[in-house]
Task: inverse folding
């Protein structure tokens, strides 16, 4: 008893926690991976960031002086106003259409089972599992055939190919967890199909639709391959404009390319932070199975 | 007899397990506050309370799955509260069973023996015996996913007892089963305890389960111990009105103490009755009289009763087979729940009485008084809301 | 006819039109070589030319190690970040951040950071580990680094989602049965995680196998990192030989499918049922 009173409980609890946290080999490996990852990530991000704000930078640790002029230069040189507008337009169109097509399909898949359902699920799974470049080449060929490639419509259509299945696959488990008895209850209260959809289902679906939309937005802004294969000079999104900027870099300065890359990363970062507020990070990737979280 | 045949009291038992002021906080929230409890070898102790009362926290602290934030756990005088769970040698049955889904039933039961590096032949023998004990020999090759809830439950128990642990911890093991199976498994658990003599700590929110299984009960509320005692003690002499409410004293009546002594006179709705003092409430103070519905009886008009009688009006009558569950109203508007074999009908005027030793008088509770009353009221309305559609369909 | 099913019709029609039809069209086109020579001429051309044939091997040599490294690194990190702790949100955001970088910033960053006068070589020379700068860009290593940086977040998030899907009470149960930390990992968590890891590997591999921009930007696109996707793109959109481009895309799909089937075949030997979750 005396021994008990001498030790302050909090100190002991801390000791326990400390031992638990630092005594394990797994923790050390994880810390090493963390450290290695973050140091190199900082290097990879830091170099273009410093360069985009630097006047001249050759072999020293840091640029000789600092300036923000490259951002203005990049904006004019690559007509980024137009590019940002295209990017926003393409992304919003892709989000809207994929939600319009994807949510009803997800509802049907979540609520009904029918012969060939597995085949339909596979159809919705494949465009996400197969890398865009593989189906992008035949897809672009077809779009060229119908004179859609090079236009905004073509870019939107191409980007919808992975987006529609993505909405379907994220919304299906979401709809499955809404108790179908709620709809039955609404009908028992006298609601017609329209009212059930509008007044009962839609409010319940909004969080899921919001999450799926944000994720599709992030994926579309970041989608390089499909846009690259189908975009013309007037329908380039930011990623693609960035790639062309590097490739035709002969007369362009490295700094303005870096400034543009930093602008791209910043916009993606903003979208990502917004996305992480709405969704569990594990939803950023395709969920192959329903995921359970534990406190 | 334990599954391996070694006698209880050798390796698998202990003299006493002491919890000394065991506490656990989550941030500022105290989930368990200074639990003092001594468990003797071979005893069956139940931790009882509603969800969030700290009973599962206490169990996890005993198992070593949660570090304590205060106090100590001593096993025969040796501190064990800083040992990792795998070094305590306790067995645990989890609420959701936590069976390893990728192993067969046999693999699950044998897992602990494998960890303890018990020689193969010996391990096989002990596993067989444990499976036999829970009647699962025929299912040994199946995966947990192929079993029914009751069978999974038995695998969990076999897995916990095959190591002949010094202490078996059970976390609401019956809560996922349906009513009939729950009764069956309750008997099964009691039988296993009698047969193996393993010291057991059992967590439940069901007072009936606790009363029927345990040698001793620990009633918890908001992390604090309310009462420790044998089932008879807790049932007949609850320590406070909270325990009384939890133990089926459904009538919590506002009374005024009008007489002195251990069996004071009380005024309730203008009538005089007699109760048994539990808190030393002084004369003239308001108090609560706790009475079980089954301790109230309907007495014929004009018959004197040693405890005095109360006039009441019948409001709702429910048919419960041999007897009726009746809700009546006193003249001051308080509701009265009773059970009777008299054939009463709504609006009947009756006189009700209870033996003085069954009318427990408690002083005002220091915390949660209003809450309890509110909960009672909610409980009632819920009952009726739930009953009405049934009556319609019947 | 159930009218609810009609809700799925637009989605199915859309994919049939813009996914299945182009795929089939591409497959058909690949058997109609531009310059004639029989149905298999495009494939023969691809497999006869060592410069083209080699691209498969070059791509595999990049994609398999990248996917392996990402999966293996993701496991301890996911383990460390699965429970609640202070700053978890920040750490997860940082780990996921490379998704936002995009190929170009990654490439520019790698060129600067790993280049002969970059921070890494400067630092290594500064502490005396090396005399000559390491050659890390415009070759195999630059592309591998790029694949790891962009692929790790996906592997990490998938692993994390599989890991948090395992009921924590299984681990606790193992602990009360006397299993030490390493044994709990070996006998309980790893078997339950393995099928998920197989899927994670497949997705990481597929992602890395289609490597295209980084091979151009930080690699040596005519030599060491002459990957199959570059050849497919160039055939279709620079030489305008859509038939050959489609044929190479089909070869790509076939190789990916072969590796994925191999991994999934191994996975089918594992336990794949429920991993607890919440009852």
Result:
């Amino acid at each position: 008893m005396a021994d008990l009173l001498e030790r302050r409980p909090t100190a002991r609890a801390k000791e326990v926690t400390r031992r638990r946290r630092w005594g394990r080999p797994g923790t050390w490996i994880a810390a090493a991976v963390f450290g290695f990852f973050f140091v190199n990530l900082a290097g990879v991000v830091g170099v273009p960031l410093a360069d985009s704000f630097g006047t001249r930078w050759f072999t020293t640790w840091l640029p000789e002086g600092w300036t923000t002029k490259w951002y203005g230069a990049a904006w004019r040189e690559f007509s980024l106003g137009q590019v940002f507008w295209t990017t926003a337009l393409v992304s919003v169109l892709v989000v809207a259409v994929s939600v319009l097509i994807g949510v009803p399909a997800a509802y049907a898949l979540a609520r009904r089972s029918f012969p060939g359902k597995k085949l339909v699920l596979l159809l919705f799974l494949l465009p996400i599992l197969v890398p865009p470049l593989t189906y992008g080449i035949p897809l672009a060929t077809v779009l060229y055939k119908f004179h859609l490639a090079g236009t905004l419509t073509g870019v939107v259509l191409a980007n919808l190919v992975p987006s529609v299945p993505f909405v379907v696959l994220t919304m299906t488990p979401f709809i499955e967890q809404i108790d179908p008895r709620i709809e039955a209850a609404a009908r028992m209260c006298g609601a017609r199909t329209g009212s059930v959809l509008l007044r009962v289902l839609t409010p319940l679906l909004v969080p899921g639709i919001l999450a799926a939309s944000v994720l599709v937005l992030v994926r579309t802004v970041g989608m390089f391959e499909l846009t690259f294969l189908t975009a013309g000079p007037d329908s380039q999104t930011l990623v693609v404009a960035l790639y062309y900027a590097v490739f035709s870099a002969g007369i362009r300065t490295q700094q303005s390319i870096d400034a543009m890359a930093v602008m791209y990363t910043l916009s993606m970062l903003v979208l990502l932070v917004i996305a992480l507020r709405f969704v569990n990070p594990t939803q950023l990737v395709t969920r192959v199975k329903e995921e359970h979280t534990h406190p | 007899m334990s599954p391996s045949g070694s006698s209880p009291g050798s390796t698998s038992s202990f003299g006493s397990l002491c919890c000394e002021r065991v506490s656990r906080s989550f941030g500022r929230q105290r989930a368990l506050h200074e639990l003092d409890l001594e468990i003797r070898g071979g005893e069956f102790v139940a931790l009882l309370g509603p969800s969030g009362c700290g009973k599962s926290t206490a169990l996890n602290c005993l198992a070593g799955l949660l570090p304590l934030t205060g106090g100590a756990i001593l096993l025969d005088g040796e501190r064990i509260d800083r040992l990792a769970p795998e070094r305590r040698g306790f067995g645990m049955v989890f609420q959701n069973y936590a069976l390893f889904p990728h192993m067969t039933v046999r693999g699950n039961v044998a897992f602990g023996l494998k960890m303890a590096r018990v020689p193969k032949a010996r391990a096989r023998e002990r596993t067989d015996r444990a499976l036999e004990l829970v009647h699962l020999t025929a299912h040994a090759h199946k995966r947990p996913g192929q079993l029914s809830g009751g069978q999974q439950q038995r695998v969990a128990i076999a897995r916990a007892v095959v190591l002949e642990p010094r202490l078996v911890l059970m976390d609401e093991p019956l809560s996922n089963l349906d009513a009939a199976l729950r009764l069956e498994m309750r008997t099964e658990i009691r039988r296993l305890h009698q047969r193996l003599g393993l010291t057991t700590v059992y967590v439940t929110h069901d007072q009936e389960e606790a009363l029927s299984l345990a040698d001793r009960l620990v009633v918890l509320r908001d992390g604090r111990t309310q009462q420790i005692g044998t089932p008879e003690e807790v049932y007949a002499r609850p320590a406070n009105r909270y325990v009384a409410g939890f133990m089926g004293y459904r009538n919590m009546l506002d009374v005024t103490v009008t007489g002195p002594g251990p069996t004071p006179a009380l005024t309730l709705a203008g009538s005089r009755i007699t109760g048994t003092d539990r808190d030393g409430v002084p004369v003239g103070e308001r108090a609560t009289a706790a009475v079980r519905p089954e301790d109230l009886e309907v007495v014929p008009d004009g018959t004197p009763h040693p405890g005095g009688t109360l006039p009441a009006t019948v409001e709702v009558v429910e048919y419960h087979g041999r007897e009726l569950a009746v809700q009546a109203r006193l003249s001051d508007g308080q509701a009265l729940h009773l059970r009777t074999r008299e054939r009463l009908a709504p609006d009947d005027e009756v006189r009700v009485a209870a033996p003085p030793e069954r009318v427990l008088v408690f002083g005002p509770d220091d915390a949660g008084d209003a809450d309890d009353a509110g909960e009672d009221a909610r409980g009632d309305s819920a009952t009726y809301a739930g009953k009405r559609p049934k009556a319609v369909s019947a | 006819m159930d009218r609810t099913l009609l809700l799925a019709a637009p989605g199915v029609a859309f994919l049939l039109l813009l996914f299945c039809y182009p795929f089939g069209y591409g497959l058909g086109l690949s058997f109609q070589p531009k310059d004639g020579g029989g149905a298999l001429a495009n494939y023969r051309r691809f497999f006869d030319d060592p410069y083209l044939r080699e691209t498969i091997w070059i791509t595999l040599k990049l994609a398999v190690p990248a996917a392996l490294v990402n999966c293996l690194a993701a496991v301890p990190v996911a383990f460390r970040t699965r429970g609640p702790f202070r700053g978890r949100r920040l750490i997860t955001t940082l780990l996921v951040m490379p998704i936002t970088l995009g190929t170009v910033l990654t490439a520019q960053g790698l060129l600067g950071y790993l280049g002969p006068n970059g921070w890494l070589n400067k630092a290594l020379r500064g502490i005396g580990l090396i005399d000559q700068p390491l050659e890390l860009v415009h070759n195999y290593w630059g592309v591998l680094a790029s694949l790891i940086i962009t692929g790790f977040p996906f592997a990490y998030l998938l692993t994390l989602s599989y890991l948090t899907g395992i009921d924590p009470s299984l681990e606790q149960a193992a602990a009360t049965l006397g299993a030490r930390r390493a044994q709990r990992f070996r006998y309980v968590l790893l078997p339950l995680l393995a099928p998920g890891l197989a899927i994670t590997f497949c997705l990481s591999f597929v992602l890395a196998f289609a490597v295209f921009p980084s091979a151009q930007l930080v690699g040596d696109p005519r030599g060491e990192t002459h990957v199959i996707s570059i050849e497919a793109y160039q055939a279709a959109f620079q030489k305008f030989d859509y038939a050959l481009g489609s044929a190479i895309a089909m070869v790509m799909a076939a190789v990916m499918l072969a590796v994925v089937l191999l991994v999934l075949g191994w996975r089918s030997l594992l336990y794949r049922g429920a991993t607890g979750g919440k009852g």
